[in-house]
């Protein structure tokens, strides 16, 4: 997959006003940032713009604001992110503007396709928010298609480089490991990966539908699914799909009092769970994570994590540095592999740029 997207290096940003879309949606606990990965990943583009004496207007978000109370309480304010960014850029003055309460952003909040307010802020638009670039939102597509010049930053360029390497790799065996809660959302990714891979390992809640259609009792369902879709997928790729043979189950995920291991030769009780965030259920994810990381070292295998919870798991088990690449966007990675037209392509036609990364 190759998209025609302009790179930052092809744009003259010197002393220009640059609207920079970043994904600074960092995790918080009690108002404190627990992981600065996304902030640090943005620094290369920021430092390049600063070096070129550009005036930078950063647009980002922190979670989703669903009520007036969330605005007034500032629980989802980017102020804490601005303060942390200031620590990483001590020689640059960071000014925080709480735009989510600015009346001028009414059109933006309503997802105005052209986002005239954002477009008017600068001369050039740089999209470096890989985690959101697969969505046709006003803050990326709206600005990108309605500003004089637009391009991608170094973070997205790097993301696309490694994702292209994954898609075009000829190394064998090609093994994919997939998890997650909703099979319907990942049917395309399973099909696309199954076509090019030798094996697809499916774990966690994502495995339940494939087990249920075979007659196994999976306990309490986390979601409903289309059995016909799952059955067709299973029938088509049965020889490639590898499913769990046992699970750790409990009576209560929040306050587990009964935690047992069951295999499919035993009766599976109700309330079937399994999440790596809780240590009592983390061993399976931990072993798979470390086994994949080990292949990078021993066999020089190309190993990529598609962001999201998988990246969090690698960090928890202290093996993130052993992977070839960890993406900053799970949904964007999946959309790219699926071949979605929206991924990181918010630009109007340009000349004098490459089609490769």
Automatic annotation (TrEMBL):
| Catalyzed reactions | (2R)-3-phosphoglycerate + ATP = (2R)-3-phospho-glyceroyl phosphate + ADP
Might you report a single GO cellular component term? Answer: cytosol
Question: Which UniProt key words apply to this protein?
Answer: ATP-binding, Kinase, Magnesium, Nucleotide-binding, Transferase
GO aspect biological process, one term: glycolytic process
| SUPFAM superfamilies documented for this protein | Phosphoglycerate kinase
Enumerate the InterPro entries for this protein: Phosphoglycerate_kinase, Phosphoglycerate_kinase_CS, Phosphoglycerate_kinase_N, Phosphoglycerate_kinase_sf
Molecular function GO terms recorded = ADP binding; ATP binding; phosphoglycerate kinase activity
Pfam families the record matches: PGK
Co-factor(s): Mg(2+)
The keyword Transferase is assigned to this record: yes
> Does the record's keyword annotation contain Magnesium?
yes
UniProt-annotated binding residues for ATP? 186, 277, 307-310
Pathway field of the UniProt record reads:
Carbohydrate degradation; glycolysis; pyruvate from D-glyceraldehyde 3-phosphate: step 2/5
UniProt EC number: 2.7.2.3
Subunit-level organization: Monomer.
Family assignment from sequence similarity:
Belongs to the phosphoglycerate kinase family.
Q: From the Swiss-Prot or TrEMBL record, give the protein name.
A: Phosphoglycerate kinase
Which organism is the protein's source? Gouania willdenowi (Blunt-snouted clingfish)
What taxonomic classification does the UniProt entry list for its organism? Eukaryota, Metazoa, Chordata, Craniata, Vertebrata
């Amino acid at each position: 997959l190759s998209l025609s997207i302009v790179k930052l290096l092809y744009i003259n940003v010197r002393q220009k006003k640059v609207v920079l879309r970043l994904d600074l949606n960092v995790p918080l606990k009690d108002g404190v940032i627990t992981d600065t990965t996304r902030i640090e990943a943005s620094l290369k583009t920021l430092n390049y713009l600063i070096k070129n004496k550009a005036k930078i207007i950063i647009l980002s978000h922190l979670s989703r604001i669903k009520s007036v109370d969330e605005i007034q309480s500032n629980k989802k304010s980017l102020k804490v992110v601005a303060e942390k960014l200031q620590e990483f850029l001590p020689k640059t003055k960071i000014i925080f503007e709480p735009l989510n309460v600015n009346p001028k952003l009414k059109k933006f909040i309503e997802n105005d396709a052209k986002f005239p307010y954002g477009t008017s802020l600068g001369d050039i638009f740089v999209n470096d928010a890989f985690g959101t670039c697969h969505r046709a939102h006003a803050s990326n597509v709206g600005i990108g298609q309605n500003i004089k010049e637009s391009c991608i930053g170094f973070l997205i360029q790097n993301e696309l480089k490694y994702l292209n390497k994954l898609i075009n790799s000829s190394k064998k065996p090609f093994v994919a490991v997939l998890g997650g809660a909703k099979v319907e959302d990942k049917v395309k990714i399973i099909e696309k990966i199954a076509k090019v891979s030798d094996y697809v390992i499916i774990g966690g809640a994502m495995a339940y539908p494939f087990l249920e259609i075979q007659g196994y009792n999976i306990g309490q369902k986390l979601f409903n699914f289309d059995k016909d879709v799952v059955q067709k997928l299973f029938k088509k790729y049965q020889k490639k799909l590898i499913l769990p043979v046992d699970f750790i189950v409990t009576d209560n995920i929040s306050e587990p009092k009964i935690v047992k291991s069951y295999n499919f030769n035993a009766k599976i009780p109700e309330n079937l769970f399994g999440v790596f965030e809780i240590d009592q259920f983390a061993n399976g994810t931990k072993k798979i994570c470390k086994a994949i990381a080990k292949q990078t070292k021993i066999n020089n295998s190309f190993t990529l994590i598609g962001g999201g919870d998988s990246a969090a798991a690698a960090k928890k088990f202290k093996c993130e540095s052993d992977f070839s690449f960890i993406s900053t966007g799970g949904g964007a990675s999946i959309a790219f592999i699926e071949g979605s037209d929206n991924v990181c392509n918010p630009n109007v036609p340009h000349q004098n740029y490459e089609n490769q990364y």
